[in-house]
Amino acid sequence: MKNRCFWVTDSELYKDYHDKEWGTPVFDDATLFEFLILETFQAGLSWITILNKRENFKKAFDNFDYQKIAKYPESKYESLLQDAGIIRNKLKIRSAITNAQLFMEVQKEFGSFSKFIWSYVDGKPIINKFNKKEEVPATTPLSDKISKDLKKRGFKFVGSTVMYAYMQAVGMVNDHTTDCFKYPN
Q1: Contact 9, 184 (CB under 8 A)
Q2: Which positions does UniProt annotate for Zn(2+) binding (predicted)?
Q3: In contact, 14 and 185? CB cutoff 8 Å
């Protein structure tokens, strides 16, 4: 039996996410945008709620194609509000559209969103050495800094807690606990 991080439940979906995605460095802009959308929708909710609805989000948001999302007309926004398969929060749906537009602005400025976001960690993951859940932070000075920068650029639902969860998800920080089989030795 594999020893996993404390937050992993018996859910196969959770185990699969933990084992194959969480903490694995992501440099692809399309995947970075997908996680940005999912993390912003997760704000105030449990991650398992988002994982359970991930395929619905994927379908509703055109496979997380930020170029399409950035051009969503009001009619698409209205239809998303009616989609029971996703989180029907007006502000979060609106922010997905706004964040897609701003994501492309960052790409123009830096060449890719990946270059921008990974520059905060000099292009390589921060490997933390946490032994138990009480040691894993919800925010850090770095997530505060990224949050502040994104907010200044106009991004929505990118508070420090959301940004730290994002950093964990896309592997900018590796917070697998030292007893987890995914902890890098």
Answers
A1: no
A2: 5, 18, 176, 180
A3: no
Binding-site positions for Zn(2+) read 5, 18, 176, 180
Known active-site residue 164: no
The predicted model scores a pTM of: 0.95
The predicted-structure confidence for 137-179, as pLDDT tens digits, reads as follows: 999 999 999 999 999 999 999 999 999 999 999 999 999 999 9
The answer to whether residue 39 is catalytic is yes
Instruction: Give the residues of the chain that fall short of pLDDT 50.
Output: none
Among candidate residues 14, 17, 164, 183, the one labeled active-site is 17
Let me know if 47 is a catalytic residue.
yes
CATH number given to 12-174: 1.10.340.30
What's residue 44's pLDDT?
Answer: 87
